[in-house]
Design goal:
259 residues, alpha/beta, two-stranded antiparallel sheet, 9 strands
Length: 259
């Protein structure tokens, strides 16, 4: 059963198409569980997310699609929330199926934004990775979210640490386990300069060994990216020893077998 639960809409100001086009593409690709998790509002980086006034519109539209296509696909409603000092209770208190917690900023540096790639050459890559995974650890400690988004997004431009990634990430992964969170296997990295899924196979081995739940996403910002290589990634996950995946309804974890 194909799952794709982290996808965007034009309300984030950097996606194209309309939500119904995404749903139709998901049905076409035989996805059974499809989730919208657009960039949540916050009073920072506002040019890359919906406004607070857009939230009711977003939720109404997704719920309308959920009802319209209920006989063809299960549609879920969530938000992708940046873990920053600007996290807003107006987002955290929304009545949704799940919240994905992501790290896109180290202080105010948007490290995955091509506009700011030059900063990578001004810092030590190992230090960036250490800082990033410390933020992921704090995200898990916050107990605010259900899913960790693109766990090793920090590799997006292909900069890799000299240190062993397992050593850098181990405390964050242990905290994710304590929090009972799921980790998404996100195929968007295959469309980025790094040309790898998030997270890497090495990190997935750690996730498997810790017994952490997984889910799947294409992180689509346009309809043609819906379901991108998810069938292949499900096979990979099974080969690594994962037998189940999860999704969330009303903030409650639901498990399904990988077949």
């Amino acid at each position: 059963m194909m799952i794709d639960i982290h996808n965007h809409t034009p309300l984030c100001k950097h996606a194209t198409g309309n939500p119904e086009e995404y749903v139709k593409k998901a049905i076409e690709k035989n996805i059974k569980i499809y989730g919208f998790a657009d960039h949540a509002s916050m009073e920072f980086d506002e040019q890359y997310r919906m406004s607070f006034s857009d939230m009711p519109k977003y939720e109404k539209e997704i719920k309308s699609l959920k009802e319209k296509y209920k006989d063809k696909i299960k549609i879920l409603l969530g938000y992708e929330v940046d873990f920053t000092p600007y996290v807003d209770k107006r987002v955290l208190e929304r009545n949704v199926d799940y919240l994905i917690g992501s790290v896109h900023f180290l202080d105010n540096w948007g490290f995955d934004n091509p506009e700011f790639i030059k900063e990578w050459h001004n810092r030590d890559v190992d230090d960036i990775y250490e800082e990033y995974f410390s933020k992921i650890q704090d995200l898990a400690k916050s107990r605010l979210f259900d899913i960790v988004g693109h766990l090793d997004l920090v590799k997006v431009f292909g900069f890799k640490p000299k240190k062993n990634i397992k050593d850098i990430a181990k405390n964050a992964i242990k905290e994710i386990k304590k929090a009972g969170m799921a980790v998404e296997i996100n195929t968007a990295g295959l469309r980025k300069p790094v040309k790898e899924i998030y997270p890497s196979t090495k990190l997935l081995e750690m996730i498997r060994d810790e017994g952490i739940d997984i889910t799947f996403s294409s992180d689509a910002h346009k309809p043609e990216d819906v379901g991108y290589k998810i069938n292949e990634v499900i096979k990979m996950a099974k080969n690594l020893g994962f037998s189940e995946a999860v999704y969330f309804e009303n903030r409650k974890k639901q498990k399904i077998k990988l077949t």
